[in-house]
Amino acid sequence: MAMGEEVATSNKVYSGSNRASLAKFWPTRLKSKGCWRNIFIKYPSTCYRTICSDPCDSHPCQNGGTCILKGLEGYHCVCPVKFGGDSNCAPNINTECSVDLLFLVDSSSSTTLEGFLHYKAFLKKFLHVVWNTETLQNVALAHYSNDVKMIVQIGDYRDMFSLVKIIDSMEFIGGNTLTGKALRFITQQGFKRPPVFSDVPEDLPHVVVLLTDSKAEDSVVEAAKFSRKEGISIIAIGSEVLRRELDEITGNPKRTIIYSTTQDLVNKITELQRKICSIDNQGCLSQPLDLVFALDSSASTGRFNFAQMKNFVSSLSSHFGINRDVTQVSLVVFGKRPQTVFGLDTHVTSSALLEAIKQAPFTGGSASVGSALLHIHDDVTVVQKGARPGVKKVVVVLTSGAGVEDAVVPAQQLRGNDVSLLIIVKESVQMDLLLRIAGSSNSLVRISSYEDLRHKKDFIMEKLCDEAKMPVNICKPNPCMNSGICIPKNDNYWCQCQGWEGFHCENRIRSRDTSQSWKHPAMIHTHLN
């Protein structure tokens, strides 16, 4: 090529290979003596392999959905039942519960900016997917580190766009993790409504959703107890390493949500929705229930602790609607021998019930849990003593742990009659035996002291609500007296009697001919749904 000759190179590449340092051919046009001709010159080059990201790597399908690749950049989700209404299997739900809801977000240095941003994204997703736009005025938002900053007060916003915009503008603070201080502040200041919302009911449950990834650096357990005592329900969301602390904050392990990854956090939206609505659980309080309390009044409990038991029963009972149609309560105390303080159908008002609980006597002496359970089986959870057919029956036993050796068989008899047991016991070495009495670990609640009873109230209340909603066998316990046979029929029952007559075979037939007695069935209206 002569000096001064002009060289032009095309932009088009005529080769491609996965090998490095492979020569590529570039067409070159050489101008010489007024004419153009094509020649090929070899240039060394290096090829790089590029791996395109898989759109399914980000796990876009929620709630157990399966991500299926669609082309190079697309995907679609195969969703489980009830989640098919959204392309990413997001929960197609809406809260029907009415609560004042405050999100308290950890903005400390230990959580990090990245964690804080994940929490903001979670909040926006939750509100979009779950929360009813008509109740956005019931939502508040705060974040904290050394101090607490209220971002949204109850009643500030009614539209989703404005609320999401303010979440986006929330800035990371950094600093120490003073969760206890934040809870005290929220309890006193977080749920105040502006005067313009004076027409909105103020008796809505107050719920705090705590999002944190940091261990508290102050006395958070005492602060949480203060909050719960003031009527604040706490739901805590965090990682596995914080589980024990979060359980102590909520006072109820069922109100703790543990996540492992960022995507797993998003998948907890449905669980959070259920937990929020379970707090506004008026449906539980209107669910028919026959509830029996059996209190250990032996010397191993002592007078002072027995008084704490009675206070706990009073506090728990005050949350139920006491009448013939909803909740009936019976109280049994026991030492060596059991004593019925009042039966299921004795009191039909809450005030009369609470006054009667105060009068329960302390008996002293040794304890026999088995005798108490047998007494309840034979003489309390029976129709002739006020028990209602078709209504769930639960026996709550509060015991020091002494005198439980004879309780296994009576407990089995109660469960065989479709009567549920909940055993609340002070820490005991006989845990294997207590598990046999309770029937399962879910029916056994351990307390470190009787003072701890009041901190377990929400947890036990939730268990009772769960039991009240369980299906029942209308013929258990057998409502028919005098060896009558209970026969279910169309959500009711009738008693087949021999030698007796009446709805429950309660009247002896005077005539010699008893063969037709079964023709007088008891068609009893029950509470079955």
UniProtKB/TrEMBL annotation:
<dbReference type="Pfam" id="PF00008">
    <property type="entry name" value="EGF"/>
</dbReference>
<keyword id="KW-0732">Signal</keyword>
<dbReference type="InterPro" id="IPR050525">
    <property type="entry name" value="ECM_Assembly_Org"/>
</dbReference>
<keyword id="KW-0677">Repeat</keyword>
<feature type="domain" description="EGF-like">
    <location>
        <begin position="53"/>
        <end position="90"/>
    </location>
</feature>
<keyword id="KW-1015">Disulfide bond</keyword>
<feature type="domain" description="EGF-like">
    <location>
        <begin position="471"/>
        <end position="506"/>
    </location>
</feature>
<protein>
    <submittedName>
        <fullName>von Willebrand factor A domain-containing protein 2-like</fullName>
    </submittedName>
</protein>
<dbReference type="InterPro" id="IPR000742">
    <property type="entry name" value="EGF"/>
</dbReference>
<dbReference type="Pfam" id="PF00092">
    <property type="entry name" value="VWA"/>
</dbReference>
<feature type="domain" description="VWFA">
    <location>
        <begin position="100"/>
        <end position="276"/>
    </location>
</feature>
<dbReference type="InterPro" id="IPR002035">
    <property type="entry name" value="VWF_A"/>
</dbReference>
<dbReference type="InterPro" id="IPR036465">
    <property type="entry name" value="vWFA_dom_sf"/>
</dbReference>
<feature type="domain" description="VWFA">
    <location>
        <begin position="290"/>
        <end position="464"/>
    </location>
</feature>
<keyword id="KW-0245">EGF-like domain</keyword>
